[in-house]
Amino acid sequence: MRLVSIIGLFALCLGALLRPTVSQATHVRAGEITTRRLPGSSLTYLITLTAYYDESPKGKGAADQATEAPFCFGDGTVQSVARSGRVYINGNTSSVNSYTVIHTYSGPGAYVIGTVLVNRNEGTLNLPPAADSENLSFYVSTTILINAALEVNSTPVMLNPPLDSARVGQKFCHNPAAFDVDGDSLAYRLYKPQEGISNSCRSRVIPAYLDPTQFSTARENGGAPPTFTIDPVTGDLCWDSPGQIGQFNFAFIIEEWRNGVLIGEIIRDMQVTVVDQPNKRPLIVGAEICVEAGTLIQQPITATDPDGQRVIIRAYGGPFNINSDGMPLPADLRIPPAYATLLNGGVALAQPATATFSWQTNCNQAREEPYDITLKVNDVPPGRGTASLVSFATLRIRLYAPSVKNLTARPTATIAGRAIQLNWTAYSCGRIATSGGSSDTTKLIIYRKEGCTPIDPQACITGLAASYGYQEIARISYTANSYIDTSSLKRGVSYSYRIVASNPGIGNNGGLSVVSTEACLELPLLAPVMTQVTVDSTNTQRGRITVRWTRPIGLSPGDLGAPYQYRLQRATGLAGTVFTNVASINTNIQPGIADTVYVDRGLNTTDSAYRYRVEFYYTGTNGQLTRLDVTDPASSVRLAATPAQRQVALSWQANTPWTNDNQTHDVYRSRSGPNGPFNKIAEVRVQGAQTYVFTDTGTDTFVADGNTSRQLTADSSYCYRVMTRGQYADPKLAGLKPIENYSQIICATPSDTTKPCSPNLGLDSLNCASLSSESLCGQTSFTNKLRWTLTSGPTCDPNVVGYKLYYGRYQQDKPAELASIPAPTTSFDHPNLTTVAGCYYVTAISKSGMESLPSNTVCNDACPAFVLPNVFTPNGDGKNDLFQPLKCPRFVESVALVVYNRYGSKVYEGTSPTLAWDGKTTSGADLPSGLYYYQVTIQYAMLDRDAPAQELKGWVQILREGVTMR
Fold this sequence. Notes:
The chain is mainly beta.
């Protein structure tokens, strides 16, 4: 939910604004509104207006009558609230007035709580006209965010009254001594005084407000321009420097942040009186300290006065449990006791002046945000009539949770196997969850890393940075003082442990402790250590792997109970976890006996990797074999090959307790098949990887066993194996002989993506112009004859083994494969065609199966012919009985005929593959002799699918009786 800004206009209240009945007199000098959520409800808040009134003879009457104040709660409701407290300060010239009310909201949201007090002080110069400033109302507001995720939340309280004096020409500073019991982060920014808009809950910045620098000419050191600023971190508000006597008001905002989210804002409107006198302001020195919770802080605070006058040192902050009116803070705004004191504070001290800040801290006061103690010093001028001047400084205290003490580690054993037991002194700074705050108690976070790397924990640096390489392995209650680690521990590896306490708290309270000191331990090597898993032969059924391991390092004959036994176990796959017994080997671990090697046979090393481990047993007091420990598993090396363009890419990996990184691996190749011989072709220095790679391009970089360099071809198969080298990281095992293991043998054929050159295609096509009227007469089947030649080029593969011929009947068609022709044939007859029309192209095919780009496309087109007579005799004598084409029509697909008599009436209409009209009507009746007109539409079998039909129009004479055509 976005926090509503309080800079804009306040939301209009729905009810009528309740206003106290007071005389039109001057009295309001400063004030702010604070809130705190009441326990047990996330929607009910205690809201307090703290107002500072003028109690001088001129303003006391109005202050007496200010018995009520109106509250606008930001949810459309208003209430007139009675004054609940009035405490006089500053020699009874001012008073701190409290108005407190409990209000319940209907639901989550952002609410702006405001109040309007009728009259400000008269004579405020930067609220012109100053003589009329009493007619300006006084308005302050606070914004709260109600959200269940925030748990308990209270706004900060301001423990330093906002009433001070300044001197012309000297830098003036004020600090509100804001304290947030929830430990939220506070940020400060300047604002402007506001006034209420009559009879509403709205407000506005006073239009006539003038920045205080407009009443200045120079800074204290004579520089220009003058400044009016607030430190966004400490809250020090400074005017450098006042240039005119008088009374001034200004405002600032305190922002409340939690986990990077703005959750509230408070406006304080305050007043300062500037005098012009020879008195100089005193000086006070702040400090910044960082201590472990539980430490007794004894911090001297020194102050001086340039005039040598006595000074009064005061301090404000949450650890004192004192509100701005000098009364104790409400119980739920107090930090856990014991509370701080300021020895020699509040009394006039001669020069040199020193007060001592004393605070016996405890665990429950630890938090992420620092405690800011606002230090204030007043000088004590002699005589009456000279105003006391002030200066401020900050004592910033970072209080962090203590570390876990006396952490130790020792080896132990559990049913689960090897283990390390941690012990430490019971943590004395635990915090129990409360119903209104965090839902968790203090937790101890246990971290572990391999290897022992001393680090120097820095005071005030809490937690354990990820850059140190530790991983969290457990989170347990602070009441525990031991922990057994059984997770994936390896023999011969040193483990470093550290603990950080995580303390719960409301808001930003609590936090992490400083990290503990290191407990480092190496598990003793009372178990064997794997040293080899090498593939001796590659076969789907008769594969063989040799497995080697050491005797238990650190175990001597006679230790524990003899005899001993190794149990070799095997799982399938690089990461296999289902182990079965392969062999049981009894031993007395005597020198000279080969009891730590085993050849495993009958394996499918072609398709699978295998993983091995060795269990070690001793004879217990009951005479039974008892497992002491088991080695970390080690797999065989698994090699993979990927064909590429005239090369083979190799990759290999293994899953072993030793590392094969930063070692030289050997690559072997056979050009004669899996039975060898194998030549070493490369030594690969692998760098920090678990999967290693090498690409064979045919080059042999290791010629000591003969130079086998030549280009890899796609018509040959090549076989490979690799040998890895490894080493244990543990210095105690680094002296073991080089750990060398062979992979299985794998074969691969390189690919070849080089294409042949495109052929050049030719076609025996018809020459229509040279055909006579009787050419192709009566021919219904045709053959297209194609010839091609293979072209060559420097980037083409000359190893052509065949061709593919593609054909499309129409020129609009995408040609489809027609035939495959083996080399060296370079011709093809395409027979049994009804027309010669069609298009062709041819491609060449290489030995590796690559197809060239298409050749040139060649096309043939038909030569149409169609001629009609002008007389026929359908008299049944078998001569000239049909109206049909003369001579030899060519490449006709269809003919449509329409016949009209001399009167224009249609007498016949028909379509046929060839024209053969018998002189009858469409219904089959004989037509009489006479002259008839026809229209013939002829569709030819042409190359163009969309070629237009030919139309012939003419006349024809029908002769029937006694006519014989010769």
